[in-house]
Write a structure and sequence with these properties.
CATH class of the largest domain: Alpha Beta
Strand content: 25-35%
CATH architecture of the largest domain: 3-Layer(aba) Sandwich
Number of domains: 2
CATH topology of the largest domain: Rossmann fold
Number of strands: 14
Helix content: 25-40%
Largest sheet: 6 strands, mixed
Distance between the termini: 22 Å
C-alpha cells in the first residue's frame, strides 16, 4: 500500500463557517508528514475527522484503505492518537495508565507487561512508573501520552500539537523519539504551529483558513516560493546597483559597515554559486564572503499568506 492517508474533497462546516475547505491530501506509508498553520487554520478539525471523532460535511477519508467514519472500529486497531491536551487519568500511575489502555486495545498478560516495560525504557519513564499521572511534569505527561498512543504498536501515529506549551529542550527530545519511531516503520502525522519543527518532517502541508495552501518537502517549498536558493554575497566597499545589473537575480541590495551586501536568488546554489562568484570577480569587485541564507518556513508561510494565496503544488 502506497498511501497511509488518502483524503479527497474534505469539508467541514459549522453553520455558515467553513472550518475545512475542500481538502485533498495524500500521506505515504512510512512518512513523517507535518500539518502546519496558525491556531484556527483547521488542523485539529481535520485530525478529528480523520480519527472518526467528527463526521465530515462532505468528502472522503481513507486510512490504510479503511473508509472513515464507517470503518472506525478497524481504524482504532491501527492508529495511535495523542490529543492537544493531556487527557489521561491523573489519579492513576504511569504504569496503571499504560496497563488500562493496553487492555482496552486487547493486550494482556506477559505481552502487555513486556510492552509497558519496553515503552517505559524507550520514553525514559522507568523511574516514575509508580507516580500518579497528575503529579508529573509537563514533559513527563507528554511522554506518557505518547506511550499510551503507542501501546498497541499502531501503524499510524496522529499527534495534535504534541509540543504546545513545552520548553524547547523537551520539544527537541520529543522529536528524537518520533524519528526513532519513524525509523521502525511508523507513519506519523503531526500538527503544529511551530514552523521550525517542520524541518523534522519528510513533507509538510501549510494550512490557512481551512485551506491547504502549500504542500511539499521543506526544501521544495522554500525554493518554489522564493524562486530558488537565497545567497548572501558581501562585496568590499560601496557598489552601485546599476553596476550589478544582469549579473544575477538580485533580490535585495543593502550597505553594511561600508560594504555592499547582496541577496541573490539561484535556482540551485550548490551548482550556480561558483559561476556567479567568478563573474563578480571578473568585474574587478572584491568578494568578502558568500553563503546561502537559511530561509525559515515561517517566512515561506508569511510570503504565501500575504503575497499570493493560490496553492503551491509540488
Amino acid at each position: 500500500m502506497e498511501y497511509a492517508i488518502e483524503i479527497s474533497g474534505l469539508t467541514k462546516k459549522f453553520g455558515n463557517f467553513v472550518a475545512v475547505d475542500n481538502l485533498d491530501l495524500r500521506v505515504k506509508v512510512g512518512e513523517i508528514f507535518g500539518f502546519l498553520g496558525p491556531n484556527g487554520a483547521g488542523k485539529t478539525t481535520t485530525i478529528r475527522m480523520m480519527c472518526g471523532l467528527m463526521r465530515q460535511t462532505k468528502g472522503s477519508i481513507k486510512i490504510y484503505g479503511y473508509s472513515i467514519p464507517e470503518e472506525r472500529n478497524e481504524l482504532i486497531k491501527i492508529t495511535g492518537y495523542m490529543a492537544q491536551r493531556f487527557s489521561l487519568y491523573e489519579d492513576l500511575s504511569v504504569y496503571e495508565n499504560m496497563e488500562f489502555f493496553g487492555k482496552l486495545y486487547g493486550l494482556n498478560g506477559k505481552n502487555l507487561e513486556n510492552r509497558i516495560l519496553e515503552l517505559l525504557e524507550f520514553l525514559d519513564l522507568k523511574d516514575v512508573r509508580r507516580r500518579l499521572a497528575g503529579r508529573l511534569s509537563g514533559g513527563m505527561k507528554q511522554r506518557l501520552a505518547l506511550g499510551v498512543a503507542l501501546i498497541h504498536r499502531p501503524k499510524l501515529l496522529v499527534l495534535d500539537e504534541p509540543t504546545a506549551g513545552v520548553d524547547p529542550p523537551i520539544r527537541r527530545a520529543f522529536w528524537e523519539y518520533l524519528r526513532g519511531l519513524n525509523k521502525e516503520g511508523t507513519t506519523i502525522l503531526v500538527t503544529t504551529h511551530y514552523m521550525d519543527e517542520a524541518e523534522n518532517c519528510d513533507r509538510i502541508g501549510l494550512m490557512n483558513r481551512g485551506r491547504l495552501i502549500a504542500e511539499g518537502t521543506p526544501k521544495e517549498l522554500k525554493r518554489r516560493v522564493f524562486g530558488g536558493d537565497i545567497v548572501e554575497v558581501v562585496l568590499h566597499g560601496y557598489v552601485q546597483e546599476g553596476t550589478l545589473e544582469g549579473v544575477a537575480n538580485l533580490k535585495e541590495l543593502a550597505y553594511r559597515d561600508g560594504d555592499t551586501v547582496l541577496r541573490v536568488v539561484l535556482k540551485d546554489a550548490s551548482r550556480e554559486l561558483p559561476a556567479l562568484l567568478r563573474r563578480i570577480d571578473g568585474m574587478g569587485l572584491k568578494i568578502i564572503s558568500a553563503e546561502p541564507i537559511n530561509v525559515t518556513l515561517e517566512e515561506v508561510f508569511i510570503e504565501l499568506v500575504t503575497g499570493r494565496i493560490e496553492k503551491v503544488a509540488l
